[in-house]
Description:
The protein is an alpha+beta fold.
Amino acid sequence: MNDNKQILMDALKFHGHKCWASTAGVRIGLAAMAALGVERSGAKSLHAIVEYGDHHGAMCFGDGIQYTTGCTFGKGNVSKDPKGKLAVTLIDKANKKAVRVAYKPTLQKQIKESAFMQKRSAGVPPTQIPEEEQWELVNLIWDAPAEQMMNVGPVLAYDWQEPAEIIRFAVCSGCGELVAEPYLRLVEGQPLCMDCAGYAV
């Protein structure tokens, strides 16, 4: 098994089920890193801007991107530009350059008509779909020529401005939970979390 196939297997395990969108995320994440000539971000050397948005059936794409690039919501080096598209802009912060890679919908007819997607459309959870039907779509995306399933844009200059990291915390006087300082509210001289204060702004 080559290194990239092992990355796919590990990413699918991380994601929790096998599907076309997470596989597309893995391939597109790998392609973006190759275009920039960078390795996976173990700290915060890269930043990914994902465009997939929320509440639709292809959000699995995001896990493929996160696992492959190492840009995660926990590290704060991934952000959303929610347009409902399966695309990512990967930024190499040290070298001030970026590339946008987008999924090409040339395989969507086959995906839509697959046994996996017929069952998903009927409300069957992905983990209850037979393995061979899951693998059918994984292999369709994984084995497709790169030019058939993605557009790799040009590498462009990109001067990423890193937001200041907040490391100060305080304890809410109401619930006793730890809160990052900018999220505290001062009520009658007492620091309160937004829930205890009763307002967010």
